Amino acid sequence: MALPNIEDFIFLKLLLSVEGIGPGKVLSLLSKFKTPKEIFSTDFQSLTQVDFISHVLANRILKSTDKLPSIEQAVNIELEKVNKLSAGILTYWDNDYPELLRKIYLPPLILYTMGNFTDTDKFSIAVVGTRLPTNYGKSQAEKFSSELAKQNIVIVSGLARGIDSIAHKSTLKTGGRTIAVVGSGLDIIYPYENKKLFAEIIENGVVISEYEPGTKPDAQNFPKRNRIISGLALGTIIIETGINGGAMQTAAYALDQNREVFAIPGNLGIKQSEGTNILIQKGEAKLVREPEDVLIELELKLKPVIGKTIPKPDYELNLFEEKIVDVLNSDQLHIDDIATRTSLSTADCLVHLLSLEFKGVVKQLPGKLFMRI
Q1: Could you give the domains of the chain?
Q2: Which runs of E-coded beta strand occur in the chain?
């Protein structure tokens, strides 16, 4: 069913305003009736014959027509705001509605969009994580997002601080396409420091929300929006997250949606790695070390957009270089700490670290600090 006109949209909004009616019951009703308007002009008995529509709900639906004038007024105001934003509205029944998202349990029936969806968006991978990443997490988010984007894969994230922002920025930097799912109206950019990033995503992807313009970024909106992030993607990569982090919710949604979940392991004792390590331990996420691991797992689904997989490194590490890489598997370390942990002299460490820099495995930071790329 298409919703090509304002009248259908008004009656859809009226239906959603009825207490006890959500996406699931709307889909049940519209499997029997051709348009939202027809639902309100039918009789009580016909409504109760629809799955999940009780006598109480049928009465509420028929009585809700009293609210029609106020709903119509609210929709007109909403459409004015959408026009001022140069935004668009998609419903579940529109041809441009994302194919992957339509398949999830309780998909959003209305999406507000800035930017445009394309055919390549069905080859998307979500990259999410903590708002307070370690340097290791930042590096991994940048590496995975940029390398996957180079393979024509669309990167989905939530425009939040930390890992999400890095995922979007890294994708755009490589000329890739990215989708941001926000937890507020499209006229309220949150966090505000992402205003420039918001505009850049619109030019090279799409920003979407299930919340109408004017909706504030309230805390309860974000867990709900996480189901859309995972729902838009073939798989979700968790970079770093605490046990109770929002990325854990996204992982749970992905599993419920029968989508792949990947996690990057981190050091024990690091709060930002607790969530990813638990996902791996429970077998709920596949451990990945390189972007290629993701491509191999999703090779058949991604084959239409990737001409080839990301090549494996064409270098080999010697015994001492492997020792150093093993201790640099998390955050930045000072040269003295590296020497202590590897039982090598500082001079030997510096020689092998220089070699690792040339190979693109390690990066040196100010103050004789080093981190794995």
Answers
A1: 6-75 (1.10.150.20), 115-302 (3.40.50.450), 319-372 (1.10.10.10)
A2: 88-91, 110-115, 124-128, 154-157, 178-181, 205-209, 235-238, 260-263, 286-287, 333-334, 362-365, 369-372
